[in-house]
Every structure is written in structure tokens, then in C-alpha cells.
Amino acid sequence: MSTIAVKTNETPIIITRGIYDLLKIFINKKKLSRHNELKLDQELKYANQVLRKDVPEKIVDLNKKVKVKELETGAEYEYNLVAPQKARRKHNTLSILSPIGIALLGYEEGAELSWEMPEGVKFYKILEVTPLA
């Protein structure tokens, strides 16, 4: 039996109870790669659960605009994270349950993280987190 080494951020993620429960269901449905499943499970084990009104402003959460930099290429991306049922390409919004949405949830502006994408493990830095207008 092989084991996968999964590095998590030293600072616990901060998420709401609702998002915590949603991510646990997502893990149980086996919708993630083994690497991401182990990483997310570890993150959730130490997560700080708060009420929606108590989520700090600079934490990636529902209805936030997030600017990230892919550390290997230097490419920068901006994501408008919304609930899955509200995600629309024509409105430039992305579901919090998309691969990058799950990867970023609960992290603070300035954090660096890794997540396995279809093309391999990618490393990101969160440059900016702001509320959606």
C-alpha cells in the first residue's frame, strides 16, 4: 500500500459550518483525486468553523473575488466565487465547488497553497480577496 504525502498550510483554514458540511459531503462522494481528498480532509480536521457574519474580510469564501498567482508560471487569474447554482460563465462567476474554488476556500490573502489539477499539482499564492460587488 502506497501513501501520499500531503502538505497542508500551517494556518488552519476558516470556513462556515455550511461550507464545512458541503465539503465533507464532497469528500464522501469521492469526487476528488486521492491527493486532494487527503489534503482537504486534513484541512477540514483543523479548520476553524465560524458563522457567515464572522468570516474575516480577507478570507476566501462565498461571494468573494479572488486574485491568485500560479507560482510556477507567474500567470495571474481572477475568480468570482459563488454558490454552485449561481455559477454562470456569461456572468464570469465560478462555483465554490470547482477545483480551484475548493482549493482556495478558507485561505487568507497572502497564503500559498497547492492543489492537484487535471494537469498536475499546481502551486498558488492568493494575492487579493475582496467582496463581490
Automatic annotation (TrEMBL):
Record Pfam families: GreA_GreB
Record keywords, A-Z: Elongation factor, Protein biosynthesis
Name of the molecule in the record: GreA/GreB family elongation factor
Stored SUPFAM superfamilies: FKBP-like
Gene Ontology molecular function terms on file: translation elongation factor activity
Domain Transcription elongation factor GreA/GreB C-terminal: 56-130
Record keyword Protein biosynthesis present: yes
Origin organism lineage: Bacteria, Pseudomonadati, Bacteroidota, Sphingobacteriia, Sphingobacteriales
Keyword field contains Protein biosynthesis: yes
InterPro entries given in the database record: GreA/GreB_C_sf (IPR036953), Tscrpt_elong_fac_GreA/B_C (IPR001437), Tscrpt_elong_fac_GreA/B_fam (IPR023459)
Organism (species): Pedobacter montanisoli
